[in-house]
Specification:
This protein is of the alpha/beta class. The chain has two domains: about 5-110, Transcription Regulator spoIIAA (2-Layer Sandwich); about 155-380, no CATH class. The protein has helices spanning about 5-10, 45-50, 70-85, 100-110, 125-155, 165-175, 180-200, 210-250, 250-255, 260-300, 305-315, 320-345, 350-380, and strands at about 20-25, 30-40, 60-70, 90. The protein has a four-stranded mixed sheet with strand order 1-2-3-4, covered by helices on one side. Strand 3 (about 60-70), helix 3 and strand 4 form a beta-alpha-beta unit. The termini are far apart.
């Protein structure tokens, strides 16, 4: 220690917290005389302010009229000992009670939770972990699809076991109750397609062909896809939330204990309801989308509804409608599959239920887009 530092230690400094501690210098030692109340509900002295500019070689706390104390005092000691380790000073606790020394030792043994290493720091590890996670999720989907197929076969063999009342209730919830939002989305999509097509076709004098664009786009693609996305956010999330809440409340465990398969009791009625109502909603969405396009064709291009309808029928036939219905059935089953799967996989907590609902929507929309692309390739090969 420099002579200037030794001289500075010999100078007494005013105490910042006279009601709780006082300090004095004894050679190279800083003595902390503790008194009063040390509680978390009160003020805890700051070691940096108590120490000031002094750099003692040893710190020794003593008790002089200490009234009540709790973890506030231990945290202050922990702050002092941490400074001693970093500065090379010595913390002398021989004057403290044995119980206080033991508690302070236990407090120092507690290590802060380590922050997990970011997997992205190692690209190879990140790719490997992502691959294994994707394979695990795919295996879970395949297993669940297999359970649903076996359950459907069992119900076909014994139709009386199917819960028709629950299925009808779900049909009303995912079908009739979804008409307002499906109507709005489909009508606006038809308007958007008509505006977009009119801007391009008007440049070439082909205003009438906007009817062909609206008819093919709505019947083959947009009707089924938009309806599937709407039901994924509305019905798929609801399925996941309901089943996740039942799992959290151990209702699914109770069914398994009674020997009732959850897939037969809970999943199959929901999937059948969506499989039946989705193609009907798709046809309804097609009609609303065509109506929206027809209104824009009349107001913007001056095309009468009769001319619009006749021109659309020259290119849209029953095969196009069948394509949309097939997609609607598939997308309905996908939404039901994703919602029920994520609900049964949910953690037993409120956060787990919310995560399951979000995951169900993401899974359903992703599988809908993938299935739509696969259907596009298949129908192109078959010439539909």
């Amino acid at each position: 220690m420099t002579p200037a530092g030794i001289l500075h230690l010999m100078v007494e400094q005013p105490d910042a917290y006279p009601d709780q501690l006082s300090t004095r210098i004894e050679g190279d030692e800083l003595v902390l005389a503790l008194r009063g109340r040390w509680q978390v509900t009160g003020t805890r002295p700051s070691w940096a302010r108590v120490k000031g500019e002094r750099w003692p070689a040893q710190i020794r706390p003593i008790l002089e009229g200490l009234d009540t104390w709790d973890s506030s005092l231990l945290l202050f000691f922990l702050e002092v000992r941490t400074w001693c380790r970093t500065s090379g000073a010595r913390f002398e606790d021989r004057d403290l009670p044995e119980r206080m020394r033991q508690m302070l030792a236990h407090l120092e043994e507690v290590e802060p939770e380590s922050i997990p290493k970011d997997r992205a720091e190692d690209p190879l590890t990140a790719v490997g972990l992502a691959t294994f996670d994707a394979l695990r999720k795919a295996r879970g989907i395949y297993s669940f699809v297999g359970e649903c197929v076996l359950s459907a076969g069992h119900v076909l063999k014994f139709p009386r076991l199917f819960r028709w009342r629950d299925c009808l209730s779900e049909m009303q919830a995912c079908g009739a109750m979804a008409l307002p939002i499906v109507s709005l989305i489909s009508f606006l999509v038809g308007i958007t397609l008509a505006y977009t097509g009119a801007i391009v076709l008007r440049q070439y004098g082909g205003d009438i062909y906007v009817a062909d664009l609206i008819g093919l786009a709505m019947v083959r693609e947009m009707g089924a896809v938009m309806t599937g996305i709407v039901l994924a956010g509305r019905t798929g999330a609801a399925f996941a939330a309901v089943l996740g809440n039942m799992k959290m409340n151990e209702e699914i465990d109770a069914l398994e204990t009674l020997g009732i398969p959850p897939v037969d009791f809970l999943v199959l009625p929901r999937m059948v309801a969506l499989g039946v109502m989705m193609p009907l909603l798709t046809l309804y969405a097609n009609a609303l989308g065509i109506l929206g396009g027809m209104s824009i064709a009349l107001g913007l291009l001056g095309i009468p509804p009769a001319a619009f309808w006749v021109e659309m029928l020259t290119i849209v036939d029953l095969s196009d409608t069948a394509v949309g219905v097939i997609k609607g059935i598939t997308f309905g089953l996908i939404v039901g599959l994703a919602g029920c799967l994520r609900g049964l996989q949910a953690d037993r907590s409120a956060a787990g239920v919310g995560h399951a609902a979000t995951s169900a929507v993401v899974t359903a929309i992703t599988l809908i887009i993938v299935a739509d692309a696969v259907y596009a390739v298949i129908f192109n090969i078959l010439g539909f």
